[in-house]
Amino acid sequence: MLSTPTKAITLAEFLQLPETKPASEYIQGEIIQKPMPKGRHSRLQSKLSNVINQATEAEKIAYAFTELRCTMNQRSLVPDISVFQWQSIPFLEDGEVPDSFNIAPDWVIEILSPEQSASKVISNLLYCLENGSQLAWFIDPDEEGMLIFLGDRQPIFMEGEEIPPALEGINLGLTVAQIFGWLKMVG
Q1: Strand partners, 33
Q2: Which of the 8 DSSP states describes residue 101?
């Protein structure tokens, strides 16, 4: 993550700035730009969000958004995947999805990129959990493992044939090995 040295600004001022590519986040008064996603990150992000949406959208159980800005309390974060239970999505009166989400995702997923600090990414996951998220996944492609955060419990490290938990009502039945298996697209 790149930190942009600027004079201190408020969250409200940050939210008025134009969006950047890759996205910038507002954490404790500091603007931090996320790294540009690379191949493994992009593959896991798109495949996982598609699998979640295939399992949840038709039944209106939940929806997985990629790179969605979520603003809660004094942070504005852009998780790799933000999953909202259907009843948590703040739909507009006409039923459209709003541009602004001022709540924590029910389930937040971050995929570690080589340029990212694991502790900063985990700090953001913990912040989401403190502000309403029920579940967080921290996916580390180099380790082919995942840290799972469930509310007040200790984090759980999962790998291989273990099946990480999803939100209640979502049955993905995916093992950690299957998720990392998506990285092999040939042969």
Answers
A1: 2, 24
A2: B
Are 167 and 107 a contacting pair, CB within 8 Å? Answer: yes
* Both structure tokens of 130: 């403190």
Report pLDDT digits (tens) over 105-160.
Answer: 999 999 999 889 999 999 999 999 999 999 999 999 999 999 999 987 899 999 99
- Which amino acid, residue 130? E
Domains annotated on the chain, with CATH: 35-181 (3.90.1570.10)
Around 64, how many Cα atoms within 13 Å sit in the side-chain half-sphere? 23
Contact 28, 124 (CB under 8 A): no
The DSSP H or E segment spanning 180 is helix 176-181
How many Å apart are CA 23 and CA 95, to the nearest integer? Answer: 26
pTM: 0.93
Residue-wise pLDDT for 71-105, tens only, equals: 999 999 999 999 999 999 999 999 999 999 999 99
